[in-house]
Amino acid sequence: MGRSRGGFTSKLHLSADGRCRPMSLVLTGGQRADCAQFKPVLEKIRIPRTGSGRPRKKPDSLAADKAYSNGPCREYLRRRGIRHTIPEKTDSQAARLRKGSRGGRPPGFDEDRYKKRNTVERAINRLKQFRAVATRYDKRGYVFLGTAMAAALVIWLRT
User: Fold this and answer.
1) Closest Cα partner for 86 from 104, 61, 105?
2) Which end of the chain is more exposed for a tag (fewer CB within 10 A), N or C?
3) Rounded-to-integer distance, Cα 12 and Cα 48, Å
4) Higher pLDDT, 6 or 30
């Protein structure tokens, strides 16, 4: 558990597929920034293949909110070859325009793909249907992460 203004809290960072099923879970203290957990969440993704072979570690595409629009996150996605739709923050857009031709071109943005970003929010709501995940009575982080993993497993088995 991490300390924040409200006391001891924790955050559950996750990625979800198009059917609102959790694919990877990372638990951190409440004071941790979302963008700092971007790489660990993506590196935990394992998509099993139907036949034999290693699981896929790279999603086809990714839609994220403005919290992940910084340079290191975009560079990481470009390096791994993952198509992404992340809106640009207004302050970084103004800084890019202020630089003129040295600011570079704006990142691509597909509004139709961005509309599907709500699958992550719906996956979180599905996890919160389980009382133990919603109330967070567990004192230890590894116990709460196990509870969230069990809830994610039940979600996968039901769909």
Assistant:
1) 61
2) C
3) 23
4) 30
Fold (CATH) for 2-158: Nucleotidyltransferase; domain 5 (3.30.420)
| 20 Rama class: left (phi>0) / alpha (psi -120 to 50) / beta | left
54 token code pair: 């290693």
Measured at the CA of 119, the angle between CA 113 and CA 122, to 5 degrees, comes to 155
Terminal Cα-to-Cα distance of the chain (whole angstroms): 32
Whether residue 68 contacts residue 37, with contact meaning beta carbons closer than 8 Å, is answered with no
| Helix or strand (DSSP H, E) at 59 | none
Instruction: Express each pLDDT in 100-126 by its tens digit.
Output: 887 777 777 888 888 888 888 899 999
Read off the pLDDT band of 135 (50, 70, 90).
Answer: confident
Phi, psi of 125 (to 5 degrees): -65, -35
> Which residues are registered as beta bridge partners of 85?
63
